[in-house]
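Subject: two folds for Thursday's group meeting

Dear M.,

Sorry for the delay on this. The cluster queue was jammed most of the week, so I only got both jobs back this morning. I'm pasting them in the order they finished. Each block is the input sequence followed by the predicted structure tokens. Could you check whether the formatting survives your parser before we put anything on slides? The first protein is the one we discussed after the seminar.
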Amino acid sequence: MSRTPKGGRRKLDASVPPTYDVPTREPRFDSPRAARNIKALTFVAWLVGTAGAATSVIAVGALSNVSAPSWIERPSAALLMIVFTIGLTHRGGGFMRIWLPMVTVLAVASVVLETNMLLAASAGVTAILAAVWAVLVTRPAPTIVSATGEYIVTLVVALSGTVAVAAWNAPVDYQRFNLAVLTVSLGLAITLVWNLGAGLHGLGRQNVLYLAGVAAVIVLILVYSSYVRSNGSQALVRLIDDSVIWMRTHIDGVPRPVEVFVGFPALIVGVSRRAKRRDGWWIQVFAVIGTAVLTTSLVTPGAFPTYIGFSTLYSAILGLVVGLVVRHYVVREPSARAARAIEEVVRVEPPRFAPLK
């Protein structure tokens, strides 16, 4: 009869490499070469669409007599909306034969007919798809450097959605449009993350506390900002207005609190947590708040691209700092003694452009 020594901790068996813990769909193409060609074509379409849509907010040829024609803006936005559909549907394991034709019809009809309802619908769909895909395209990040890299990837994808929404030049009410995009984006992200994060039963007490804390911060920011504007003292309101005016005058932008304290830090913590546990997806759901606010920032024709650009830059820098600070306390590295006693848990996921389920 064998006995286990008292007081000791066994190391995990690392002889078996870790595997992905979510079932994935079969490859869409039997030929690996065809799959690579489709990915390359989609990437080129994303580059072309982003460059064409960016002409709606960037003065091309300002130093010469040649300028980009205005007619390429909406077709470029339509191309990006189709690319976002392909990327999100493929990443989320959806049915391409259903969603791609529907979005393609909407894109073509919006470009050809140019009615207000179709333009507003296309701008909303583009913002939602870009916001959610920017979060799902990330990969687990075990280190600070890799987490920062995933942070940059998310911002690049979300910014391409921002210029696409601006290129639609849709006549919408910003407040209602922003609220609708934010609500649908969160709902879509929660639906996709349900299986990726092992459902609500996979959260655990610690992550429930994290999510409750993030939700409390969101409610606090929204309620406090609304209360100050309606019931705050004149001195406080004047101080806030003067601070905003000073920042707009001297640094050409104002950081957005929702991105700095909620959306962007949730992205850093989420990708870092996913490197060890799949419930990190539930934290990363709140990153959609930041990307959704970003993709809708240029929806109104009266928005100043320079002001929005600097505001986004400041929000990204401050959000990264806040996220790294929170990551230090949430995703702590094991002590030297614990590392000797037990092997560090490493979780793997499919490549960046492969289905997650």
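Second protein, same layout:
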Amino acid sequence: MRKYLIAGFVFLVAYHSIAQSSSQCARSLSQAEVAFEQGRLSDIINLYSNSSSGFTRCLNNGIFSIDEEIRAYKLLTKAYLFQDNEGKAEEMFVKLLKVDKEHQLAPEDPAELYLLKEKFKTEPILRVALRGGMNKSLPQVFPGQNFSTFQGQKRYNENGSDTGLGIGVWIEALAERHLTNGIEVAGGLQYRQTSYDVEGELIVNDLTYVARNSSSMLRFPLIVRYSFNYDRKDEDGNRIGFLPYVFIGGSYDLTLNSRYVDTQRTGGTAYTLPDGSDNLKAEGQAAPSNVSVMGGVGVRMRVGRAKVDFFSIELRYDNSLFNYLDPSNRFAIKDVTFGVGHVEDDLTLNAVSISFGYTKSVYLPRKRKQYR
């Protein structure tokens, strides 16, 4: 019991000390702001130059809150500006931007501060997005390019008892860059798993089979996006936080793996695919690469204290341009063709997906070229 009382006492003392320091720092900042209003610019600069002053210790030791830190660096920027010390004013402004990435000036801020801000690039140099979601494959057979061992029917990803929904997952990382007026470009890497199920009926002996195809791809997407409301502000001068967007793009896709999963025949003599007879990639039956086009819609919401990062929800459609299979190796896996009775059709492996993501803005405050 004694050790808990001691720990509680230490906690209360530490909390009281921190609260007292915070109160003293707030008072120190208020006094500096009063000095600025009274025109005592030298007093403010002397306070900052004196490493032992309360104002400087609060600023350098992280005792100021984020809002107080912004006020302090903005105050110092204005003080140096009005003393015609542009170099130090720029230094303080860069420190301000490191705390408040896209600091928005207030209508009452002096014109000198607006002119100083015009000399700097305050927008992010790029954004890094991480996104993941689920996809539903939509195999589309080329007209007249369906095949079978015996005459019969096929069904892809139907909601019957034997075929699945063709659900897969994917994750991607993108580097994004805003160009102008809400137009952005992005490129990166995506790992995607897809699957599709085929249920076939063969007239001979009233046989049925299910062929479950599962594949994984490494994709290299490149997209162009237009965000609505990107530069709009509300009545209070704050940026709109709800940004719907549309995008189009393309992707180069490498097939990492493609194989049959739980493929079997029923009716007559049951047949299950032997081990080692399921790899379409190894047998050259799956095309090694493909090209896709894509498009979609989504919405991003500004998050975080400074509202410069984003949470996103996106709906996307991917359409492959070329055959998912290599027709020259259509009959490569004999156990599938003659054992199960399944022959692959010529098809494109399209997909619709929904995803959730987070986008982080990366900043490097710097002067524009013409002012360097």
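Two things I noticed about the second structure. Helices lie at 2-37, 41-49, 54-60, 66-82, 86-99, 111-118, 334-340. The chain has a mean pLDDT of 84.

Cheers,
T.
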